[in-house]
Design a protein that fits this description.
Number of domains: 1
CATH class: Alpha Beta
CATH topology: TIM Barrel
Number of strands: 15
Number of helices: 12
CATH architecture: Alpha-Beta Barrel
Distance between the termini: 69 Å
Structural class: alpha/beta
Shape: globular
């Protein structure tokens, strides 16, 4: 009997030692990891982009997706304009609570000034709570601008709050490869960055196919691949969020591993384009045929189904992405994870709090993600500030 008890205690102690060892190993591997979220800022100002997203989310069944600062007017019309410093500072607080380390702002260069409102508000914030930023450039936009785009990009690299990796290399994402700007032009960006007193930028190509992305990465002299979103197709029928997460693991993480290609681990808050399929924005009308819903507004109910991530599902998926990145450091030398997205509300991927029917902010996704990232360890340096929601 004593021998049995002793043997049982030894087994229990062995399990405890294994758990502690695994936790210590993860902490060592995750040390210094940075978690970012993509920002597409079509929710600020009074321009045509805002009017388009007001239309796409204007039906009552999509009001649950509205950003927390949106308004629903008498008669059910929607008004979205987050252009205030108080709103940006609350967004920063939410991002810090969720455990985000940086935002990756989609940059339109000089083509769409309203898209830059949020970035300018962020840069003006007196307390960023440790949050940093980087840029996502679009390949076709860079091809149009040419090497003239390098100077303003390098100025961003020089900003003290710009996100760096690998001990000081400015992090730059590029959505789809350039076709006119070749390796020589990208080498010039590297040269200008070093001439400005910085380390060479860490260039990450966001594409839709691992094999062709790996080839383009090598051709352009980039450092890694990643993804902007799981989707790419616009359809009224999309896989469930659980299926999307399984696809990301199989078609991105495991495929990048099989190819042996350096990568930034990608995670997604969802992909559900139904609002845009029903009411396409102007920039999608050549690609998407409108599929209007004839259901009267008074009879519409929130379109919540398996395609929409629950807070717990999103938190679990992002936690798995962090754990994958930590345990595959040879594939992710930059030690960072990128999430689609902070605020792609009408395309289906958002972490930013949304508007409840009573006008209050639904921050359940932020809380769920923050809880998981905090549980993964203090090495992620997530913050949990107390929040108070200002009126827009």
């Amino acid at each position: 009997m004593n021998s049995f008890r002793c043997s049982h205690r030894i087994r229990v102690l062995a399990v405890l030692v294994l758990c502690i060892t695994n936790a210590m190993t993860f902490a060592a591997e995750a040390e210094g990891m940075r978690i970012g979220a993509i920002r597409w800022d079509g929710w600020y100002g009074k321009g045509g982009v805002v009017k388009a997203v007001e239309a796409s989310l204007g039906q009552p069944k999509y009001h649950f997706r509205l950003p927390w600062f949106a308004e629903v007017k008498a008669g059910g019309t929607v008004r979205i304009n987050g252009d205030s410093q108080a709103i940006m500072e609350q967004e920063i607080a939410y991002a810090a609570q969720a455990g985000m380390n940086y935002w990756a702002f989609v940059d339109y260069l000089d083509e769409a000034p309203d898209i830059s409102i949020a970035l300018n508000r962020f840069l003006a914030a007196p307390d960023k709570r440790g949050l940093r930023y980087c840029l996502v450039e679009e390949g076709h936009r860079l091809d149009k601008a040419g090497a003239e785009a390098w100077k303003p990009i390098v100025r961003h690299f020089q900003h003290p709050d710009y996100q760096t990796v690998l001990e000081g290399r400015p992090l730059l994402y590029v959505f789809l490869p350039t076709t006119k700007l070749a390796r020589a032009e990208w080498d010039e960006l590297r040269r200008l960055t070093v001439a400005a007193g910085l380390k060479s930028p860490y260039l990450v190509l966001m594409g839709f196919g691992p094999e062709q992305d790996a080839k383009a990465m090598a051709d352009l002299g980039f450092d890694a691949v990643s993804a902007y979103a799981r989707g790419g197709s616009y359809s009224m029928t999309q896989p469930s969020y659980a299926e999307q997460c399984a696809m990301i693991r199989r078609d991105r993480w495991e495929t990048w591993q099989a190819l042996g290609v350096p990568s930034v681990t990608f995670a997604s808050a969802g992909w559900d384009t139904r609002p845009r399929n029903e009411r396409p924005p102007p920039w999608m009308r050549d690609e998407v045929k409108p599929e209007p819903d004839p259901t009267p507004a008074a009879r519409q109910k929130p379109l919540l189904d398996a395609v929409t991530a629950t807070p717990e599902e999103l938190a679990r998926h992002l936690g798995e992405a962090v754990q994958w990145a930590a345990s595959h450091r040879e594939l992710n030398p930059a030690n960072t994870v990128i999430l689609y997205a902070w605020n792609e509300h009408d395309e289906g991927g958002w972490l930013q709090p949304t508007r409840r029917a009573d006008g209050s902010a639904d921050d359940s996704r932020v809380k769920a993600v923050g809880k998981v990232l905090h549980a993964l360890g203090g090495t992620l340096q997530a913050k949990d500030p107390s929040l108070s929601t200002p009126k827009p």
